[in-house]
Amino acid sequence: MQKAIGIFDSGIGGLTVLKEIVAKLPDENIIYLGDTARVPYGIRSAETVTRYSFENTQFLLAQEIKMLVVACNTASAVSLEAVKKEFPLPIIGVLDPGARAAVRTTRSRTVGVIGTEATIRSGAYEKAIKKLAPDVHVHSLACPLFVPLAEEGWTDNDVAELVARKYLASFQDTGIDTLVLGCTHYPLLKTVINKVIGPGIALIDSATETAKEVADVLEKLKWRGNGIGEGIRKYYVTDTPARFEQIGKRFLGDSMLRAEQVKVGGV
Amino acid sequence: MQKAIGIFDSGIGGLTVLKEIVAKLPDENIIYLGDTARVPYGIRSAETVTRYSFENTQFLLAQEIKMLVVACNTASAVSLEAVKKEFPLPIIGVLDPGARAAVRTTRSRTVGVIGTEATIRSGAYEKAIKKLAPDVHVHSLACPLFVPLAEEGWTDNDVAELVARKYLASFQDTGIDTLVLGCTHYPLLKTVINKVIGPGIALIDSATETAKEVADVLEKLKWRGNGIGEGIRKYYVTDTPARFEQIGKRFLGDSMLRAEQVKVGGV
Lengths: 267, 267
Known about the structure:
6-stranded parallel β-sheet, 4-stranded parallel β-sheet, 2 domains, alpha/beta, 10 strands, homodimer, Rossmann fold
């Protein structure tokens, strides 16, 4: 079997990234690991998330991968540098592609970022954006209820809208014209976020941006798949698969989604 | 030091139980373990939660405890019998006290139960209630957004009310006159739940009921503290303490809350 693209996420959210990669590179084999026994990462400390990232990477390396995608904003924000230092394969996080797209998009040079508590606390988006364009102002906001809303499937009802209104009111009068959806769950709430924040503000979905970067890197290295047929996709989880399969179907629109439970790290 | 009452919860919610025990038995030493590195239990499988319960119990036994309180509805629902079988000290879960209070309270012989996905899926409340009173009808409902709402501190605003309305509408026309708050986070939403469900329905808070049972058991065994002064309270967590201390202050109204990070099981 041709070596796969390895993807890990704290749970289900990374499937939005997988979906975009599949759309762009349908012939690639993909191995996905959802660390469902230890989800959510967004409320945990940087040390803990970094340890989990190492263990997830070791598991995926044992499955024969050519490239690693850290499809979790929290893990990308707090552990990507450490993971890159330890494991010398091509590694792509979801944070830099989002930051790059934001810098490319903003005209007002003022960007908003929303994400989990851990992602926002880390300041990683702000640092990444400032590194690319020191003149861009960044307004960051943690939106802890967006993940449970997306998992409950309440992505486009009155609760979702009221929650979005409460959080996004913080961006009023900041002058942002671009908002980074800095969590892989948030694209599911795109419609309601768009409605609340208004048509004048561009939404950056890191899933799309990350898929573009995965394709670019594989092209550059001449490591692309053979271009024939559909790649094989395997899903692993660290808790029992039932909940992942059920919610994952909503994410992927794939009613046949099957996952296998594995042991990763101490879990 | 006099042997302590050991309490564990998946995270912060069990502090509502601790608070009631302190109010009732202020002279008792209490050791609390919040498994914050593996929270939330409510979305995990029964096998995983059972393993976590065993590891938490082993940690507390090493701290010299005379009694164990499983202050987590999910752990009580799916693992209490197994924990009792393995560890022969007095053990109290939060589920049976709540079930008993519900049976004692209902006149219409129809009871509602709300809790996490894992608690409701286990059917443990229904079983416990039916065992006490086979004639009582039970209507159960998972309310996954209540925990993140409580942790966000949105316990009495318009979002909390709208979410409560959406969930609790299921109980219309069921004839319930009693509603069990089957998750230790839910007492924080008591005001809004009460407002939405109406004054005709009694709310059962397992925290109060559990504290009563702890006092009863210690009295019966003649294991009560010496009745002099304030007991010592120690808080342990499995992730870094910052978030636990911050949210815990809101739960306990104790601005001095300090917790220590420890290793439990594979975490």
